[in-house]
Every structure is written in C-alpha cells, then in structure tokens.
Amino acid sequence: MKDITYGHFVSDSWNLFRRNVKHLLRNPESLFVSIFLPVILMLLFVYVFGGAIHTGTEYVNYIVPGIIITCVGYASSMTAISVTQDMVGGMFDRLRSMPVHSSSLLIGHVAGSFIRNSISTILVIAVAFLTGFEANAGLLEWLAAIGILGLFLLAISWLSVVFGLLANTVETASSFTFIVMFLPYISSAFVPTDTMPTWLQAFAANQPMTPLIEAVRGYLIGTPNTNEVWLTLIWFGSLLIISFFLATAIYKRKSRT
Known about the structure:
The protein has about 260 residues and is mostly helical. It has eleven helices and no strands. The mean pLDDT is about 80.
C-alpha cells in the first residue's frame, strides 16, 4: 500500500470532486435545485410579487442578495443528501479499504457544493442584469461582496457535510437542512424587517442571514453595511471553523468503527 502524501491528498480530492460534478450533471433534480431554481425564484419574485412590495428601491436591486442566500440553503440539502448516500451506500467503506486520504471524500463534496453554488450565483446576477438590476459597486465592492458570499458558501457547505455525516438516512439528511432553507424567509431577504410584526422583528433583525444579506446588498447597491460586514464575518467565520472541525471529527470517529 502506498504512503499517502500531500500530492496524493490533492489528487484524491480532485478525483472525488470530479465524481461529484458528474453526479450533478446526471441528476436532473439536483441540477434543477442547484442551478436553475435560483433564476426561476428571482423571476417569480420580481415579476409576480415585486409590484406589490415597496422597499425604497427597485425591487430587483433589493432582492438579488436574498435570492442567492435562499437558494444556497436549498442546495445545501443536496450536499447533505449526497454525503449520506456515500455513507449508507458503501462508498465510505470502499474508500476505507483503499490508499485514499480519509478527508478527500469530504473535500470533494465541499468543492462540488462550492462550484455548484457559485454557478447558480453567477446565473442569478446575470439574469438580474437582464431584468434591470443596477449595481453601484466598483471593483473593490464587487470583490468584497464575492468574498462575503464565498465565506458563506464554504460555511454552509461544511455545515451540510456535518448534517450528512450525522444522518442515517437520506430523508433525515434532507430534514436536517430545513432550518438553513427556512431562515432567509425570516430575514431582510424579501422585505425590510421593520415591515414585520413587532414580535418577529427582533429575531429577523438579529439572526445570521440578515447581516449577511445586508452586507452583500450594501456592497452592490451602496446601502450602509459596516456593522453587518463585521457581524457576517463573526457569524459565518465561526460557523466555518466549527463545521470543519465537527465534520473532520465525526468522519474520523466513523472511520474507527
């Protein structure tokens, strides 16, 4: 059996990433949820609900960050499900018997999830411009927004891996991610939080999705976002670190059983 070096780790992770991409392309449901659902949701909200919702700016300008965050939540269920399928379907046991780095399976899933969500984000922004989106961002603001979104994508991807490792069935994995899918609806994603009932405003304004959305929105259309940026870095930087170490610990524990 060969020694597993850094080069082998990179090669193993790359091969497992390619495998996840091929599975995505061969799975119409996953492809729809991850790539096309964000665009459909944005068009639905802009053209069906947008005329009745007043946010102080063009609704398409307001909604783009919220659509991106919401659909990453939907896509997180696909990541959790694919991890669970590997765990219960024999892929995990097969890799344990091979000279493959133990973490490469997790890296492959996270990389696949990150690329999948990045493609959907690019599509949403492209279609948004076609429907009248007007960004006030310069190069630095665009880079900052991309950085914030990248942190969020990585954090949610690793959290989804944790959910997938903890679940014993595909159905359970899907239900674990419900809160990630649900939180954007109780935030500033689609309407300002001050339009919500008083008893709901405190939660909506202080849960992690709202500062994230406001930070991205601020970079793209110029609304104030200094505090939101710091809160986003704290929330999702912490989530990324915790999720990474949790996923690694759970995976190693399962490897020993």
